[in-house]
Amino acid sequence: MNCVGRPFNGRPFFTSILERLFAFGVIMEGQARHQQVVQQQRLQHQLEIQSMQIERVFDEHQVPAQVSGGTVHPRSIRFELQTQVVQGLERLKALKDELVSSLGGVAVQVEQENGRFNLEVSRDEDVPVPLLELLPLLPDLPPITAVLGLAEDDRPVLLNLTEEDMTHVLVAGDSGAGKTELLRATAVSLAMNNRQSQLQMLILHPGGDGTGLDRLEPLNYLPHMLSRVIVSPEETEQVLHFLVNEMTYRREQSIASPTIVIFVDRIVRVLENGEVSVRHAMTRLLQHGADAGIHLIMATSRPEAKSLATWLKGDVPVRLVGQVADEEQSRIAAGTSSVHAEYLLGHGDFMAVGNGEVIRFQAAFMGDYDLHLCLEDLHRRRPPALLAREVSTRPHINMENDLPANKPVQPFVYNGKGISIESHLLHDASQREQGDAFLEDEI
């Protein structure tokens, strides 16, 4: 397609319905220099975290050694060790497996050179589109706009969830296409550019097993998350019931803020294995959720499933299609025969489809060290509490073990309109107004 437009000051321009839904950012002059600064920050943060991971292993085994410096090479990082280990090299080599585990499975070699001990740690290959290097190029994103990746002409591809034509999104592709990584990067990009009073998120990963969960669980620490990743059928039913009640209330009161984005990994499993009440709730959210500011971003490796085709009908105008097995799967996933997603390369190579038009893009990637850096930044930006004791009209979900160990409990934040899984709170309008004022001051 011909994507023509004029430069803009960090805001999207639109030349078609597709570009209203996705949009292309324009990289402003001078922002490339800021990108280089971000690259250095990413590397420095990775080195600091890896140094701590290495020293933690030494401490656990009472090995008197610490990282004293090092050198970054294109394919590896050499950590210089300051140690007084009597047994020397052999004792350090005995910790190799634990060092590998602590560092996330990367290759590790313990060496001795000129009387000094070094730890050689392999570096992951550079990913095509690191999200943290893409975000600085778009300093003035519109509210509730996700950064998806880079198009073939190197323009950022954005997904604006507040557009009139935007309702829900389907992400489809085989194993290895990059669906879960796209969900992860989309969630982080939304969190980095929107306050909690504007945006809240939930993630459903039914079954809680298989690939993908380990990539989604770290998102539990995003302050925008209303709950940890939902994995059990009971919790899924509970949360969907809450969301339907919330949607009903919002429609009655003509409320659409804050935006709620629900990421559903394995949507077919939800539809096929869920109770009738689960399918009914999902259907209501699909049909009416967007009118109340509730959007579904759903992923599946089975776009051909009859349960999905029957359920979706015409309520999902945006499709993000990764590599699939054959032409028929491509046609079903994209809703058109012109995409040919069977020829995509996988690993984040996607087609964005809307209104019959297509944009090919490389999905942005959010690595573990980058995510840790984002979380530090998000929590550092949160203003300190100004109250002598905690007083909050905000709701929460009552679930046991709701959050990971050592994580501060984050209550439900719904712009002061106290809502819980069990029932609506703050029925009185004055109470709701007080809640709104409380949130505006605190967040």
Overview of this structure, please?
The chain is of the alpha/beta class and 443 residues long. The protein folds into two domains: 91 residues, Threonyl-tRNA Synthetase, Chain A, domain 2; 305 residues, 3-Layer(aba) Sandwich (Rossmann fold). It contains 14 helices and 13 strands. A nine-stranded mixed sheet has the order 6-5-13-12-11-7-10-9-8. It has a four-stranded antiparallel sheet with strand order 1-2-4-3. A hairpin with a 3-residue loop joins strand 1 and strand 2. Helix 8 packs parallel to helix 10. It is elongated. It starts with 16 loop residues before the first helix and ends with a helix. The N terminus and C terminus are likely disordered.
Question: Could you provide a short overview of the structure?
Answer:
By secondary structure, this protein is of the alpha/beta class. It has helices at 17-21, 31-60, 89-93, 96-102, 131-134, 179-192, 213-216, 233-253, 267-273, 276-288, 306-312, 327-334, 368-381, 429-442; strands spanning 65-72, 76-83, 108-113, 116-122, 145-151, 156-160, 169-172, 199-204, 259-265, 294-300, 318-321, 349-354, 357-363.
